[in-house]
Target: Transglutaminase domain-containing protein
Amino acid sequence: MKLLSVLLLAGLSIPALAQQLPVIRATAKTVSIKDGPNFSKNAWNIEPAVKPDIYTTTAKKVTFYTDVDSITIKVKPDQPQDFYILLNGKDSALTRVQFQPSRLNMLKQAKKYNYADKRELPAFTYLSADDEALKRIRRELKLDSIAGNGNDISQMINLMHWVHDIIRHDGNSNNPAVRNAIGIIDVCNKENRGVNCRMMATVLNECYLAMGFKSRFLTCMPKELKFDDCHVINMIYSTEKQKWVWMDPTFNAYVMNEKGEVLGPQEVRERLISGQTLIVNPDANWNRKNSTTKEQYLETYMAKNLYRMESSAVSGYDQETQKKGKWLTYIQLVPLDGLNQQNTKSESPTWNSFNTLVTNNPDQFWAKP
Model:
């Protein structure tokens, strides 16, 4: 009778009553969650308008803690578990706990490509360091002294550390109107603000190009076509090592093998899938506040975001500053089980327009400059 009364107070339908779903109470909108062994305070917002509001997990057991109540759900891989959170005695939030394979396991299922994919793609191009805008960046930002006199890998690392140190990461910030290295740094200084990972990678990319390195910023995305989080890093070609290398200014991170050799994005993805050794530099961190571990950074966060990857066909200066009539072409590497296998076009009457070309062929995407 108590459960029935609560459900009636919530104004639920007869079918919902018949299901006799568990109900917990709350007077605050935030919920803490224990996901397996991991506890996260105020990690979930109660959203009565979303029906159901889905929480995904890889754990066998999840406990939700409101400010006045709690519930423990035993997770079943093939059967979502539903319950209600009754907010302030009147708003009912249908909440669903749903099993989802770990992002690393999802990535392992996406290892297959088609090296015979011959869809026509433009060649990647890289702006010469002789370009006047890049020469200005090199001069005004004093990049030669920042990069130092070491080998090309050490110069790349020094430049990445510098961008990480002078720009604060803020994933919720609005992109500045001017999206080039000097403009982004000026906005951060004048407004005492941070920028997102894409803008940080844009700054570092132009610095690499200004120093004569072939470089692209690389958008790393999950399997889902609609998502609220992805990540952008830099890939730079080392002529000394004859390979691409991974540099991430947001997390001050690069990745090595067991010999201490710096790896590129393709190698990192393949080693994650095969379970080979990966080492993140010990001084990797977020905003000089939180250290970054291999487990957090690679096996969880980047395992999610290395499912598919995208680069602009042209790596240059001031690429993504918005302009009416400006067309940009992006090339996206997608595994065979990817949800998007067709080229797309998005035209804007007022801002940048986009062509996105898809390939399943890693040899085309990772082509040497």
User: Anything to note?
Assistant: The longest helix spans residues 152-166. The two ends are 72 Å apart (CA to CA). Residues 259 and 277 are 10 Å apart (CA to CA).
